[in-house]
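QA checklist item 7 of 12: single-chain prediction sanity check.
[x] sequence parsed
[x] length recorded as 147
[x] structure emitted
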Amino acid sequence: MTEDLPNPFLDVREQSILGSDSFVDMVRRKYLLMREIKDRREELALRHLRHSFSIKDVLEAVGRVYKIGPKSLLARRSGQREARRVAMYAVAVYCRHSCSLGDIAGRFGVATSGLCAARDRVSEAIAHREGRKLSERLESIVSELET
């Protein structure tokens, strides 16, 4: 009876919100991002939620790592499929405060479900051994963003 039951904690987003991507996005925007941070030492998770980069900065960082222009990353028929997928992942993860998932998906010319699917594919690839090269590239992107 307990075989092959899905683990609901695998769907936990933002460390404490359980639900679909659109539900998490709505809760984040409506309740969390509007809260005032009273003590910076106590509300680390809220500070983490509020921190984000601009889409332009993320696209430029991905473009530098993959040696292509940001416009190529946004093009639907891009010859750089991996770079585009990584850009979708990076923007969805690192621009979470500046834009909604729907806005981000619109920039890439896909539906929100397409953006989430691309993000999840990259997450799965990173978790597996064959994603070592991909995770190294993502580390390069993060270091580009932080400088």
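[x] summary fact logged: The first helix runs from residue 21 to 32.
[ ] second reviewer sign-off
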